[in-house]
Amino acid sequence: MLRIGVLFYSDTIAMNSGLGSINGRTIANLGFVRALLQSSERMAVTLVVSSRTEQEFVQHHFQSLNPNVVPLLSLEGYLQQNPFDVIHLLSPNLYRGFYLRDRLLAQPCAVTGMTHSLGHDPFLEWMTMNLLAGPQAYDRLICTTPTAQQAIRRMQARKTEQLNKKTEELKSEVIPLGLSISDLQKPAPNVRTQYGIPAEAVVLLSLGRFSYYTKADLIPLLLIFREVVKGTKQEVRLLLAGAQGGESYGEMLQTVLVELRLQGKVLLIPNPDETLKRSLYQSANLFLALSDNYQETFGITLIEALASGLPIVASDWDGYRSIVVEGQNGYLIPSLGLAAAERLDTLAPLQLDSLNHLYYSQAVATDQVQFVKRVLALVDNPAQRARLAQQARVDAQSYDWSQVIRRYETLWRELAAQAKADGRADPSTSTSLQYSQVFREYPTRLFQDDMVWGLTPQGGEALQGVLRLRVYNAMEELLDQSLLAVLLQKVDKGRSGKDLLSLGKYDPNQVRYHLMWLYKYGLIQPKPS
């Protein structure tokens, strides 16, 4: 059976709130892991987390799937009996997987990672780290769209040239994100009555985060809709739904609606829950997606629209063009961007990402005239909408998690076989921050094995049980209470420093760490040499 190890870091699930912020990355990562765990009859999946506390949280979160979760401090022993065939990361930070492979595994295995948004200048850092860490021919960075793959190739080519060193190319594959089609198609209440929408009205839906910084400028969409209202005899409504951004965009849009005299024609629906979201999709007739932001790489709402049987009219933009098939499940409207933006390009590395996204997106435009013509043609032709809707449901099936996971499985089996055939990578190319070596000048002096330790009055109280040794929750799996007690007893009896390091079953490095902890809390004290 194929053994997959997934590095599942706490930024995927925020333990203090149950889930991370509800954005595309969070939804995609959680959906991916859930679908992967559901494939346990074909693959043995292990989630690697940072601590035992996180292990308990993740096990509870996915308890119906009975996940195998291993904290990092237990991983080395676990891998001796259960080596991975593939290490997968829910991010593009493959160098972490390379390090794990090179340092903790005694046999070759493939490492894969996945991209999300690429519109951040600091992403060049992980690209550099990946190249320096020594990718192998059987490693892959999974891109969710062909255009993302092109961007990755350009970034990699530039960094490889800058590094001026021979390195194995980190190859890439295209596998899209997915969703649970059946979950999205569960019956939901029709919202037309709730929002006072006539039964005969043609409902247009746009769904996405309300943020002109990080998602899309919605004012052009309102201008387009105003022309649609003017150009048809049909009753039309536009539903704008999405999570609230941080810039009070909803209030601004309400003001724009008044200025454009669209009150009653456009409804703003902030922060819809999953049930309401399904209702909006199922109550609509047409999905509109006007994108302008370079952080938009894929477009999972378009997949949701297809699964709900909605024809799509969207900007011909990045990943959208790999989802919308012209004349088959919707239409793409030409977009226009600057060939060069020298001033912005010069300042971009110094600027906040949010402002970079806004500045560049304000110089991206979709042809409004063509957009209006295409929407009007569909508003006035229900038969055409029905034809596109039927094909949309068919096209959506290829994005079901079951199909996406199959593609991952096929790739993983191929890469795992190649890894075994090619042999183990050279561990000298790994990158890591060796704290105790890099920061050795920070303390006044360093621990020496020949130090002689003496018990302090507080240590005596601890030895007698009068003073309680308090250990932070996260430290419980690193500190051995029995070893602490043994060390206090040995120090009390005047044992030398070197004697303390040879305590039978305990590793000397473990003893050193525990001695330093006892010293930190004033329980022992080094004697003058």
- How much is the average pLDDT? 88
Derived from helix and strand composition plus strand pairing, the structural class reads: alpha/beta
Please report the distance between the alpha carbons of the first and last residues: 58 Å
Radius of gyration: 29 Å
Please report the total strand number as a whole number: 17
**Oligomer category:** single chain
**Spans of at least 5 consecutive residues with low confidence:** 14-21
State the shape. elongated
Overview of the structural elements:
This protein has helices at 24-37, 52-61, 75-81, 94-104, 123-132, 146-163, 181-184, 219-231, 249-259, 274-283, 300-307, 320-323, 342-347, 353-361, 368-379, 382-396, 401-422, 435-438, 457-463, 481-492, 497-500, 508-520, and strands at residues 2-7, 43-49, 68-71, 86-89, 110-114, 140-143, 172-174, 202-207, 236-242, 266-270, 286-289, 312-315, 330-333, 335-337, 364-366, 453-455, 524-526. Helix 4 packs parallel to helix 5 (123-132) and helix 11 (300-307) crosses helix 16 (382-396). The termini are far apart. The protein is an alpha/beta fold and 529 residues long. Helix content is 42%, strand content 14%. It is built from 22 helices and 17 strands. The strands form four sheets. It has a seven-stranded parallel beta sheet, with helices on both faces. Strands 10-9-8-11-12-13 form a six-stranded parallel beta sheet, sandwiched between helices. It is elongated, with a radius of gyration of 29 Å.
